[in-house]
Amino acid sequence: MDRIRIVGGAPLVGTIPISGAKNAALPLMIASLLTDQTLILDNVPRLADVTQLKRILSNHGVDQSVDGKRAGQNGMAGETLRLTAGDIVDTVAPYELVSKMRASFWVVGPLVARMGEARVSLPGGCAIGTRPVDFFIAALKDLGADIDIDGGDVVARAKNGLRGNRVVFPKVTVGATHVAMMAASLAKGETVLENAAREPEIVDLATCLIRMGARIEGAGTSTIHIQGVERLTGARHPVMPDRIETGTYAMAVAMTGGDVLLENAIPDTLQTAIDVLTQVGAEITPTNQGIRVRRNGHGLNPVDVTTEPFPGFPTDLQAQLMALVSRADGRSHIRETIFENRFMHVQELARLGADIRLDGQMATVTGVGRLTGAQVMATDLRASVSLVIAGLAAEGETIVNRVYHLDRGFERIEDKLGGCGATIERLSS
Asked: Which helix (H) or strand (E) holds 101?
């Protein structure tokens, strides 16, 4: 099992190219099930979750090809992925595939919309919370699907097709908004999604669906209108840059000091996080190439932050922020409101010397003068990268174990950080 070795203390200086967003690429890949024509996706990140979803789509009969790297192309540029679901040969997504990645459950929407049926295993819980699929099921029922639970599988049927309807989400949910938007694109009549998620990844999917012939208005707001069409066509679409990767590397620069250009980053997709980083003491400057992050000579300030759906502070940056303010001059408060079990990194940060006290969903972080390298264990994707950030500033050597979590969401992290002066390497066992 691979590990990451870090020797802390070096500032980061240089350029880090931001990869395509995992949270956008996955629903975009699943959207290929909506058409028998080819969907071409550019800037697809090379991640373990993308590889796993390729296997799942292949199980349904989706033909896939990846364009080779062209001469002169940046070695960290994303893939161009061609997906063709000409004939869907199987509408079943079994447990052995779905259990490895929760987002694979989302195939239920396109499959029932296009084929009139789907049998998809319930994904179960995960390290950061239960994340139930009740909202997905309720939305599909609102669109006219008959839903049964059989042997741990969700069985969805709509033999006469889905019907447009008003869908009101009880709480903001990114995954269910993705699924309902895809399913409604092929439903008969108009669908209105209320209390919809507003994340940039929702807008990215809607943009792609519109290129495929869908009629969607309001993506990026809490009310999305969809006029169903009889069929969708192929299209070409670039995956948006990853705002969570952007925020993560921005926090790494703020933690270590230095001056880094986050190439291709889009400021508007993480303005709240940028505001928080500015409060902490980083200098953030949008440029024509992306976002420049600097911190030279001065200390870190404490902050009070609550995670919220977009445009609020992202839960996917909570662990990284906690690592950052562990060195702040004062006491920070971080309240987690999205997932009920997303503080699993706290005990591992404490092994590096962080002073963090938990009270329910509130973490109080008292900044310390120094962190010290140690052996630590990654518990989930975002927790693992928070340990990398802390290790970059810790004195001595830090070994991060279970880095397969990192490979799910961060492309070549050791190369990107190492290219900016960090002492970091992957140790293969």
From this structure: none
Task: Tell the burial category of 117 from Cβ atoms under 10 Å away from its Cβ (0-12, 13-18, 19+).
Answer: middle
Of 329, 425, 314, nearest to 370 by C-alpha is: 329
Q: What is the pTM of this model?
A: 0.95
Q: Based on the residue annotation, tell me whether 126 is a catalytic residue of this protein.
A: yes
Q: In what order do the strands lie in the sheet with 117-121?
A: 92-93, 117-121, 153-157, 146-150
Q: In what order do the strands lie in the sheet with 397-401?
A: 375-377, 397-401, 3-7, 423-427
pLDDT at 300 over 80: yes
Q: Residue 398 belongs to what H/E stretch?
A: strand 397-401
Q: How many residues does the chain have?
A: 429
> pLDDT at position 68, please?
62
- The one catalytic residue in 89, 126, 362, 427 is 126
Collapsing DSSP to helix, strand or coil, 181 comes out as helix
For residue 134, the SS3 value is: helix
Q: Where does residue 335 rank: exposed (0-12), middle (13-18), buried (19+ CB within 10 A)?
A: middle
Of 16, 93, 98, the C-alpha closest to 62 is 93
In the sheet where 331-335 sits, what is the strand order? Answer: 304-306, 331-335, 362-366, 355-359
CB atoms within 10 A of CB 299: 12
Strand duo 215-217 + 166-168: pairing: unpaired
User: Do the Cβ atoms of 236 and 42 come closer than 8 Å?
Assistant: yes
| Segment 370-375 mean pLDDT | 97
In 8-73, DSSP assigns E strands to 12-17, 38-44, 63-66
Position 125 confidence tier, pLDDT thresholds 50, 70, 90: very low
Interval 214-218 mean pLDDT? 98
Residue 141 sits at the vertex; the CA angle it makes with 170 and 101, to the nearest 5 degrees, is 75
Check: CB of residue 149 under 8 Å from CB of residue 155.
yes
Task: Report whether 327 contacts 8 (CB < 8 A).
Answer: no
User: For strand 153-157 and strand 355-359, is the pairing parallel, antiparallel, or unpaired?
Assistant: unpaired
**Residues 218, 203: Cα–Cα separation, whole Å:** 9
Cα(140)–Cα(316) distance, rounded to whole angstroms?
A: 27
CB 11 within 8 A of CB 256: yes
- What CA–CA distance (Å, rounded) separates 22 from 19? 9
Expressed in percent and rounded to 5, the helix, strand and coil fractions of the chain are 35, 30, 35
